[in-house]
């Protein structure tokens, strides 16, 4: 979405922080997401919700503490009279179920090229299966001033509260305000 907004209204965008996504989506990650989006069984309590969040997202956050899992789970579920409910529109699963999926646009490189003059920071989880290192390499070739950080022990997508994320985001935002 930020690529589209930046391409349509570049004067309104001062800079972009891109969290573990790029002009291409790695098929491995897309297949993983297709395997669970819209297919999670309902849970009846927060303990079950945390267990489900760990099962689905454990690979992306291998070093989370129990407290971090609680916080993460509260961010992806909403409370409906004491019962956790996933906090996303279930209709998001419909394009994912289609073999000829329209869930991810096939080519966002023209949009990336259109926003290449904007200051940009890309944050990538070191074990991300969505943003491939080869995609980041092409992004950096096309945009030599692209700022980049790879967050250790993270898949898709870093929470952005990791020390490595916060440090580079703080510097990026400071530079935008100069």
- Work out the number of β strands: 5
Name of the CATH class of the largest domain: Alpha Beta
Number of domains: 2
CATH topology of the largest domain: Rossmann fold
Shape: globular
Q: What is the count of DSSP helices, taking H or I runs of 4+ residues?
A: 8
**Residue ranges: pLDDT <50 for 5 or more in a row?**
none
CA radius of gyration is 17 Å
For the record, give the distance between the C-alpha atoms at the N and C termini, rounded to a whole number.
26 Å
Output the structural class.
alpha/beta
- CATH architectural designation of the largest domain: 3-Layer(aba) Sandwich
Mean pLDDT: 91
Order of helices and strands: HEHHHEEHHEHEH
Largest sheet: 3 strands, parallel
Proportion of strand residues: 5-15%
Within CATH, the superfamily of the largest domain carries the name Alpha/Beta hydrolase fold, catalytic domain
Strand order of the biggest β-sheet? 1-4-5
Helix content: 40-55%
Summarize the structure.
The protein has 178 residues and is of the alpha/beta class. The chain has helices at residues 2-8, 27-36, 46-57, 66-76, 93-97, 109-114, 133-142, 163-176, and strands spanning 16-19, 77-80, 83-86, 120-125, 147-151. The strands form 2 sheets. Strands 1-4-5 form a 3-stranded parallel β-sheet, covered by helices on one side.
């Amino acid at each position: 979405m930020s690529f589209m907004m930046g391409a349509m209204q570049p004067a309104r965008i001062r800079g972009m922080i891109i969290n573990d996504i790029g002009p291409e989506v790695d098929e491995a990650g897309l297949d993983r997401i297709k395997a669970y989006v819209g297919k999670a069984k309902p849970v009846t309590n927060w303990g079950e919700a945390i267990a489900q969040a760990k099962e689905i997202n454990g690979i992306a956050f291998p070093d989370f503490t129990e407290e971090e899992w609680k916080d993460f789970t509260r961010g992806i579920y909403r409370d409906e009279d004491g019962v956790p409910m996933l906090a996303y529109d279930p209709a998001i699963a419909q394009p994912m179920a289609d073999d000829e999926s329209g869930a991810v646009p096939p080519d966002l490189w023209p949009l990336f090229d259109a926003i290449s003059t904007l200051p940009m920071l890309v944050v990538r989880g070191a074990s991300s299966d969505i943003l491939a290192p080869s995609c980041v390499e092409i992004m950096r070739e096309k945009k030599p001033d692209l700022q980049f950080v790879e967050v250790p022990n993270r898949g898709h997508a870093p929470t952005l509260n990791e020390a490595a994320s916060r440090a580079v985001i703080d510097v990026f935002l400071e530079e935008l305000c100069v």
